[in-house]
Write a structure and sequence with these properties.
Elements (H helix, E strand, L loop, with lengths): L2 H4 L8 H33 L4 H16 L2 H21 L11 H26 L3 H10 L3 H31 L11 H12 L2 H30 L8
Helix pairs in contact: 2-3, 2-5, 2-7, 2-8, 3-5, 4-5, 5-7, 6-7, 7-9, 8-9
InterPro entries: AA_ABC_transptr_permease_3TM, ABC_transp_permease_HisMQ, MetI-like, MetI-like_sf
Protein name: Nopaline ABC transporter permease NocQ
Keywords: Cell inner membrane, Cell membrane, Membrane, Transmembrane, Transmembrane helix, Transport
Length: about 240
C-alpha cells in the first residue's frame, strides 16, 4: 500500500483516524493552556503581592513545577487521582483499579505545568509596565480595580503575547506525552497505525507534518495578535 492510500480516506486509509487524533491533540492542548493561563494569572498576582507568604507560595510553585519532568507530573496526576477514585469506589463495594479520565487528568497536568511558566510571563509583563503611569494613577486617586482594568491589564497583555505564544508551543509538544496514560491523541494514533501496518515512518512523518501545521497556524495567529496589540507603540530600533 502506497503512502496516499495509507493516509487516504478510503476503507483501508487512516486519514480519518489521524485527523480525529489531531483534533484531540488540539483540544487537550487548548484546555491545558487555558487552565495554565488561569493559574498563571493567580501565580503572577501572588508573586507581585506585598504579602511575603503569597510570594513564597508563587516561588515554590514555579520552582517545583519547572524542575520536575513533565512526564512525571502527568504520571503523578493520573495515578494519584486514580488511587483516590479507586479508594472512593471501594467504599461502595467496587474492587480493583479505577483509572481516572485520561483527557481530564492530562489537561490538568499540562495546565499546572504551563501555569508555572505563564506565571513568570505575566509577572515579567507587569514589571515591564512604565512605572510613571501607575504612579500617576495612584496620585490621581484611581481605585485599584479601575487602575488594573484600564492601565495594567491592557498593557501587560500586550507585553505578554510573545511569551504566551512560546508557552503555547510548549503545551502543544507536551500534549504528546499524554499518550502514556492511554489518551488517543496524535502521537498515540501514530503509534497504533505504525504497529498495525508496520509502516512506522509513514505514520510518524504524517504526525510530524500535522504538528508543524498546527504550530504554523497558531504561531501565525500569535504574531498577528502581537502586531495588532503593538500598533502605535514605538519599538526600539
Amino acid at each position: 500500500m502506497n503512502y496516499l492510500q495509507l493516509m487516504g480516506f478510503g476503507p483501508d486509509g487512516w486519514g480519518y483516524d489521524m485527523l480525529a487524533a489531531t483534533g484531540m491533540t488540539v483540544a487537550v492542548a487548548v484546555c491545558g493552556f487555558l487552565t495554565g493561563a488561569v493559574l498563571g494569572c493567580l501565580g503572577a498576582a501572588a508573586a507581585l503581592s506585598r504579602f511575603r507568604a503569597l510570594r513564597a507560595v508563587a516561588e515554590t510553585y514555579t520552582t517545583v513545577l519547572r524542575g520536575i519532568p513533565d512526564l512525571l507530573v502527568i504520571y503523578l496526576f493520573y495515578f494519584g487521582s486514580s488511587s483516590v477514585i479507586s479508594a472512593a469506589a471501594a467504599l461502595f463495594g467496587a474492587q480493583g483499579f479505577v483509572g481516572a479520565p485520561a483527557f481530564l487528568t492530562g489537561a490538568l497536568a499540562i495546565g499546572v505545568v504551563s501555569g508555572a511558566y505563564q506565571t513568570q510571563v505575566f509577572r515579567g509583563a507587569v514589571l515591564a509596565l512604565p512605572k510613571g503611569e501607575i504612579e500617576a494613577a495612584r496620585a490621581y486617586g484611581m481605585p485599584s480595580f479601575l487602575m488594573f482594568r484600564r492601565i495594567i491589564l491592557p498593557q501587560a497583555a500586550r507585553f505578554a503575547i510573545p511569551g504566551v505564544g512560546n508557552v503555547w508551543q510548549l503545551v502543544l509538544k507536551e500534549s504528546a506525552l499524554i499518550s502514556v496514560i492511554g489518551l488517543v491523541e496524535l502521537m498515540r494514533q501514530a503509534q497504533i497505525g505504525a504497529g498495525s501496518t508496520r509502516q512506522p515512518f509513514s505514520f510518524y512523518l504524517t504526525a510530524a507534518a500535522l504538528y508543524l501545521l498546527i504550530t504554523f497556524v497558531s504561531g501565525r495567529g500569535f504574531r498577528l495578535a502581537e502586531e495588532r496589540a503593538m500598533r502605535g507603540i514605538r519599538r526600539p530600533v
